[in-house]
Each structure stands twice: as C-alpha cells, then as structure tokens.
Design a protein that fits this description.
Blueprint: E1 2-3, H1 5-10, H2 12-28, H3 33-36, E2 39-45, E3 48-54, H4 68-82, E4 97-105, E5 114-124, E6 128-137, E7 142-152
Amino acid sequence: MKINQEIAKDFPQLYSSAVQYKERGEKYQLWQEQVANELTLVGAEPNKIIWEFEVKDKHCNMLKNIHGGCVATVIDVCSSFAILTSAGKHHWKFVGVSTGLSVQYFSGMKPGQIARIECEAQQVGKNLGSVYTRIYNKEDNRLCYSSTHGKFRIDSRL
C-alpha cells in the first residue's frame, strides 16, 4: 500500500491507519495483502478518497477478467479508509468492521488495466457509517463496479 505524502500531511489519522494496516499485513501475511500491496492512495479530501490499482493476472478468473471476489476485497479495503476522512462531527480512530457489502458488477477489467477507485463517506455517525464506492477503468473512464459498504465503529473496544 502506497500513500501520496501530501495526503499524509492533510489526513494524519488516515496515514497512520494505512501504515498500521500495512505493517500488520506484512507481519501476519494476511490474505488481502495480494490486493493491498497493489493499492496506491492518490487523492483525499473531506469525505472522499481515491485509490489506483493495477489489475494483474493473479487477480483474474479463467475469463481473464478481475475476479468478483477480488473486486469485493478491493472495495472492502479501500472504502474502509474513507471513514477516516469524515468532515462531520464524528471522527473514528479505526476503520471499524463491515456490517454489509453490496457490489454491482457492470463491466470487467483485464490484466494491465488501471482501476480508479473513488470512495465517498456518505454518513459517519457515532457508531455506524456508510461508504459508496465507484470503480472506473482509468483508460476510458468507464464505470465498471459500484458498491455500498456499511461499517460499525470499534474504537471503544480496542
């Protein structure tokens, strides 16, 4: 996972959480690292973050399109961090846990293509949050996938 240093200055909690996530993944060799290691955080503003991800052969199914499970994992990882950019009155220390993840698949992506992943924190409350994600093919700006992701705050439990 790579993060633009300008983003680190503007969103220190986002940067800190991303570093902790990366270090934990390296220490325990978590399965989602096959996706997280390929992600680059390229933009952040209040309530929104933008990632890029290059689709590789290891992410694809037999039809040479990115596997649906891989898309869901990309969305789970990327959208979780959007919670930390909340401009509202509630600010979470951690990304929380998922309460639901719904993915819509519109158009496949092939190895070598770059996905632009835009995640918007729609609502971040005291205990529940909601993030809407759109994944575009960077080459032609085609919408390939979208998602809604529900989150539950775990700050008080850690």
